[in-house]
Design a protein that fits this description.
four-stranded antiparallel β-sheet; globular; mainly beta
């Protein structure tokens, strides 16, 4: 059974992810494709909780992606209702917290001095890492779903309508703007831009990956991850919704109804590609590539030749997050708030935990100490270790 055989994502799931012109806030989690039930498994691994914390009201009923910022010595997390927290990753103790007057619309980005987020009123806000106090704010053309990114000197935000804007990190002065095109219909998700010293790499709902000069925003190269095909707008969706991964001098990118491709970061030339359909970034570990396909199948590919090593379909249509590697396991969350652990060798399901009954939309993250950070839609945040059952 081919890993990427389904051409169309469930229309119900698409209704929960799409943005229509002028309708940026509508969403649903109903699906016409019936999600697979929570599988019965013979567990050999368990999620051992280290600590837990409630981050405000989490997404507070909005269809957002408020991923915490893992900054090494601190975890910064925000809730849609304006809660902002700095947390010790070892103990889970709150170092400081503050309440913003704004509704928060994006996850957090940051650099050595500031945190960055966007508001429902389409403003980019810079905050002090030390106490969360406001440093500056600037208006944006439209809403931003993805976390702003910074290289310490430049902050970049990408709007749902395709604009990429660069601001001075120190005072918020606007330095440049690139206007990308977006189709009439696109998925309600957005990849955060990659911001390097000389180059910004941005992904678009048009299926294109663009490299822009960091000092001016001028295009350097573009790569087509997906080519719109079909008679309807649904069939022509080719969004690149997952942030590309940098691998030495190349970037690994995947698109919906497009392909998984490795592209030279200097020239935009394709190194290799393979047909794929995913809304989430791939994961790489031990020379292998792990991908959650749009229909909920999890696939492992050998990096050297992209040969399929295994495919797990027991979580079909469960709206999985990006896979995260933890030792010999692969961990994903789903729309019902379950965490699933798979054996990396053969893809078998070996562990399961019901974490948040409002669902899990953002992927788990590995902390500097190796533990696993999980954030649920309701604001539940916890750190786990995944280990063999006693």
């Amino acid at each position: 059974m081919p890993a990427f055989r389904n051409r169309l994502l469930s229309r119900g799931l698409l209704l929960g992810l799409m943005v229509f012109a002028g309708l940026s806030g509508c969403s649903t989690t109903d699906t016409f494709e019936q999600p697979a039930p929570v599988p019965d498994i013979e567990a050999s691994a368990e999620f051992k909780r280290v600590w837990r914390l409630s981050v405000g009201n989490g997404h507070d009923g909005d269809f957002l992606y408020l991923a915490p910022l893992n900054a090494g010595d601190r975890i910064f997390a925000a809730s849609a209702d304006g809660g902002l927290y700095a947390v010790d990753p070892e103990s889970g103790n709150v170092i400081w917290e503050t309440e913003l007057e704004d509704r928060v619309f994006s996850g957090l980005g940051g650099d050595g001095k500031h945190l960055y987020l966007t508001t429902r009123n389409a403003e980019l806000v810079a905050l002090s890492r030390e106490n969360g106090s406001e440093v500056w704010r600037r208006s944006l053309p439209t809403e931003v779903l993805s976390a702003p990114q910074s290289n310490g000197a430049l902050v970049v935000a990408q709007t749902i309508s395709g604009q990429v804007l660069g601001f001075n990190a120190a005072d918020g002065e606007k330095r440049w703007q690139y206007d990308g095109s977006v189709p009439v219909l696109s998925i309600r998700a957005a990849a955060a831009p990659l911001v390097g010293a000389d180059m910004v790499i941005a992904s678009f709902a048009s299926g294109r990956l663009m490299a822009l000069a960091a000092d001016s925003g001028q295009p350097l190269w573009q790569y087509e991850v997906g080519q719109p095909e079909g008679r309807t707008e649904l069939e022509r969706l080719v969004d690149v919704a997952g942030q590309p991964l940098v691998i030495d001098t190349a970037v690994l990118v995947v698109g919906y109804q497009g392909k998984l491709a490795l592209v030279d970061i200097r020239t935009g030339q394709e190194i290799w590609s393979r047909k794929a359909s995913s809304l989430y970034s791939p994961m790489i570990a031990g020379g292998d590539i792990y991908l959650a396909s749009a229909n909920g199948e999890l696939v492992a590919l050998r990096g050297s030749d992209r040969k399929e090593l295994w495919m797990q379909d027991r979580l079909a249509w469960r709206q999985l997050t990006q896979p995260m590697v933890y030792e010999g396991y692969l961990v994903v969350g789903d729309y019902q708030g379950y965490l699933h652990a798979l054996d990396r060798e053969d893809g078998s399901l070996v562990g399961q935990l019901e974490f948040d009954d409002e669902g899990i939309r953002v992927p788990a993250q590995r902390l500097a100490n190796g533990n696993l950070l999980v954030f649920g839609n309701s604001g539940k945040m916890a750190v786990f270790q995944v280990q063999p059952q006693d």
